Amino acid sequence: MRTPSRGALVLGAIPFAALCFSVALWDRIDPMVLGLPFNLFWLILWILLTPCCMWGAYRLESAAGRAAGRDS
Amino acid sequence: MTAAAAALTVIVVIVAIGTAIGFLAGSRRQLDLEEWAVAGRGFGTVLVFLLMAGEVYTTFAFLGLSGWAYSRGGPVLYALAYLTLAYVASFFFLPQLWDAGREHRIQTQPDFFNSVYRSPYLAGFVCVVGILASLPYIQLQLDGIGIIVSVASFGHIGRVAAMTVATALVVAFVFANGVRAVAWVSVVKDFLMIIAALAIGIGIPLACYGGIGATFAALARARPQHLVMPGATANLGHSWYVSTVLLTSLGFYMWPHAFGATFTARSADTVRRNAVVMPLYSLTLALMFFAGFATVLILPHLQNGDLALLTVARRTFPPWFLGVIGGAGALTAMVPAAILLLTAATLFAKNLYRPLLAPTMSDDRVARLARVMVVLLGAASLGLAIHGASSLVALLLTGYAMVAQCFPGVVLGLYWRRVTATGVFVGSIVGTLSAIFLMSAHLDPIRGLNAGFVALCINFAVTIATSLAAARTGRTAGGRVRGHFEAPTEDEIAS
Predict the structure, then answer these.
(1) How many C-alpha atoms does B216 have within 13 Å on its Cβ side?
(2) Which chain A residues contact residue B245 at CB under 8 A?
(3) B26 pLDDT exceeds 80?
């Protein structure tokens, strides 16, 4: 079984940092953006950005999978 | 026609259409165990997306989250983060799990534990945990149907009657068609759910305040503390947020039904692609938050937060549209209830009854026993729903604290060579008992941390320590190990 590549793991860690561990930095009302309190805006922004990170991770994993396929 | 009659008629029509689709779906296929439980592993990206979305967007999202936004405020934000991160985390172990599943014909979570750790007792334990954790989750869905029908009928129809009818319908279509029925009802449900979510999330703030921005501006002036953590609660602050998000995002695919749904995919790549796009589906949850927050200033004194969404919808929309929302809500409860029942029943028959009591049972008879169990578990959940009284979110978090205890066994089983069956067994027993103890002793949250998360940390520590100790004394579980999942070596092929 192939373990995920380091690049994919780093890309996967980004949403965890942005949505979870950094909560104390963004859990506030001001500045309100697009009519939303900042915490809600931040979460929605990262819901949109997360698939971008994971798409990158997908590309890395597919490339690694093809390379592994050629080797064997 | 009175308002209640109009709303109820629309709800009944929607539920009838959904149920009919459930009965017709795939009714010409022969229903063996593999087909009933994982639809012959033939679903592509789109159907897997719908099936998984159907399982995620449950009554918890529809009524529970708006209810928490109303009654608790800021802490409800955990739900946006956890769902998104659940998919991120899944990217790193679900494809591996799918590979293992195909190789060993794994259909369920205990199958996986049995295949990796070669311990029927560990598999049986995981099975019991999975079934027990599913009961509050099914109860939550039935509670939701009770709430929907009693609000939509202006209290004329009791929740017990509504829950009983819904349970009977769910049991009937699962009994008849297995997982394929659920996937196709889910298509109808998702379509309606998106219409309802948009109408609720945009329509209610618009009708009550003139827009989403105006809603939050009014709330920021009147009740600013409600919008940030800990909101209206005493102890659900930032450490609770981080620990709850970690517990629930890692525990998400440990639900036996979510775990099982993975194997309906056609390939590991389907699973991986899903993990990339699924986070977008969380956006519809934000719409539920808008509605819940909007209700705070309009209906400030509701006894039960879970009623907030429908009560404000009843004030805002014409009765027929309340019916559409209620119908979408009812299907949103029935689809997950169906899949949870299906999974719990399959687990019981295939992973508990057969290996421990009737080893010679044929697959056909297992499938038949599973169908009978659908009926029994449906009745048990109905009983819990009639007598229980917890908020919908609290029910789900209780289930999560239990079910997440399977996570160490799955992830370490896939990635850590030295993990042993004994380690996982001891760790998950200690973890599960800690979770039950902390919650029943009302120690949740404990020192600001989610009790289930604390139990998960204990579980990890015990699993790793026990595995290492067993390795040192030379008692590694013989059956384990990753060799099972690796391609055979050249020597093995030659011989």
Answers:
(1) 25
(2) 19-20
(3) no
Residues B338 and B181 sit within 8 Å (Cβ to Cβ): yes
- Which pair of structure tokens corresponds to residue B340? 């949870």
Count of structural domains within chain B: 1
Asked if residue B426 belongs to a domain, the reply is no
Indicate yes or no: CB of B212 within 8 angstroms of CB of A36. yes
Residue B33: band (very low, low, confident or very high) from pLDDT cuts 50, 70, 90: low
Domain assignment present for B456: no
Summarised one tens digit per residue, pLDDT across range B392-429 is 777 888 888 889 999 998 989 888 888 888 889 999 99
How many degrees, rounded to 5, is the angle at CA B393 between CA B391 and CA B397? 120
Q: ipTM score of the complex?
A: 0.92
Give pLDDT, residue B475: 47
Q: Read off the CATH number of the domain in which B354 is found.
A: 1.20.1730.10
The answer to whether A55 contacts B276, with C-beta atoms less than 8 Å apart, is yes
B43 Rama sector, left if φ>0, alpha if ψ -120 to 50, beta otherwise: beta
Q: In a 3-state reduction of DSSP, which class is residue B265?
A: strand
CA–CA separation, B396 and B400 (whole Å): 6
One-letter amino acid identity for A57? A
| Averaged pLDDT score across all residues of chain B | 82
pLDDT at B34 over 70: no
> Cα distance from B461 to chain A (closest Cα, Å)?
21
Contacts of A61 in chain B (CB under 8 A): 95, 272
Residues from chain B contacting residue A9 (CB–CB below 8 Å)? 92
* Residue range of the domain that includes B66: 3-392
Q: Is the pLDDT of residue B70 over 60?
A: yes
Q: Give the closest residue to B349 by CA, choosing from B168, B178, B167.
A: B178
Q: What is the C-alpha separation between B162 and A70, in angstroms, rounded?
A: 58
Q: Which two tokens stand for residue B334?
A: 């029935």
Amino acid at B60: F
Interchain pair B486, A62: CB under 8 A: no
Q: Measuring CA to CA, which residue among B414, B471, B425 is closest to residue B121? A: B425
**Is residue B489 situated within a structural domain?**
no
- Contact residues on chain B for A35, CB-CB shorter than 8 A: 211-214, 216-217
